[in-house]
């Protein structure tokens, strides 16, 4: 199962380009972000193998969190953990378009031609949607206090540099709403 998810996320990154990305976040309003200074990136526990994509995600998370003023540390000394998840879903969208059928050119009833008939035409579009989720967990009780989600239609990326740039872009947008340590 984990290999399927990793392959699907890698596919997401491979096919991500022209962005239709939507980002949202949520947090616990009772949580005091001012107490946070150090963090650790925690990999999904489903498998012990760390993939190239997971490494790139972890590096981007560290880079973005350090830019916000937090310090990376090991799991035992972290004030909070960052855990990431991916999901790939096949989507279907049905669009109704209206097309004219009849004699052309249409000059109206004045010249004896009838009005063109308009008929609905339905088209179905299928696409693959990728979802990237970052959770910030409080080690005391493993409770989530912040969550960021990016959803995007998959496009194709050809080079490792494009994939890394896309990962950085996604993580930057997802973590944009996470409070900076400097402002706490």
Description:
- With 184 residues, the chain is α/β, with parallel strands linked by helices.
- It has a single domain (2-92, 126-183), classed as Double Stranded RNA Binding Domain, CATH 3.30.160.670.
- 24% of the residues lie in helices and 37% in strands.
- It is built from 3 helices and 6 strands.
- The chain has helices spanning 2-14, 52-67, 160-175; strands spanning 22-27, 38-42, 71-72, 80-101, 117-138, 143-153.
- A 6-stranded mixed beta sheet has the order 1-6-5-4-2-3.
- Strand 2 (38-42), helix 2 and strand 3 form a beta-alpha-beta unit.
- Residues 1-10 and 12-18 have low confidence and may be disordered.
Radius of gyration: 24 Å
Identify the CATH architecture: 2-Layer Sandwich
What pattern of helices and strands is seen along the backbone? HEEHEEEEH
CATH topology heading: Double Stranded RNA Binding Domain
Strand order of the largest sheet: 1-6-5-4-2-3
Number of helices: 3
Fraction in helix: 10-25%
Unreliably modeled segments: 1-10, 12-18
In the CATH hierarchy, what is the class? Alpha Beta
Task: Please give the largest β-sheet.
Answer: 6 strands, mixed
Overall SS class: alpha/beta
The overall strand count is: 6
Indicate how many domains the architecture comprises: 1
The oligomeric status of these chains comes to single chain
State mean pLDDT (0 to 100 scale).
81
Q: What overall geometry do the principal axes of the alpha carbons give?
A: elongated
Distance between the termini: 40 Å
Report the β-strand fraction as a percent range. Answer: 35-45%
């Amino acid at each position: 199962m984990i290999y399927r998810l990793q392959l699907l996320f890698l596919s997401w990154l491979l096919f991500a380009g022209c962005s239709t990305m939507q980002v949202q976040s949520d947090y616990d309003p009772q949580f005091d972000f001012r107490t946070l200074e150090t963090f650790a990136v925690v990999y999904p526990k489903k498998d012990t193998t760390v993939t190239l994509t997971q490494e790139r995600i972890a590096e981007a998370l560290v880079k973005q969190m350090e830019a916000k003023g937090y310090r990376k540390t090991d799991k035992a000394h972290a004030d909070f953990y960052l855990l990431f998840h991916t999901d790939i879903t096949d989507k279907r969208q049905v669009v109704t378009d209206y097309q004219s059928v009849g004699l052309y050119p249409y000059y109206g009833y004045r010249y004896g031609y009838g009005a063109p008939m308009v008929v609905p035409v339905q088209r179905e579009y299928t696409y693959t949607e990728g979802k990237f989720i970052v959770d910030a967990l409080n080690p005391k009780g493993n409770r989530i206090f912040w969550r960021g989600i990016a959803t995007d239609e998959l496009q194709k990326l050809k080079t490792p540099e494009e994939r890394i740039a896309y990962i950085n872009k996604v993580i930057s947008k997802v973590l944009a709403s996470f409070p900076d340590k400097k402002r706490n």
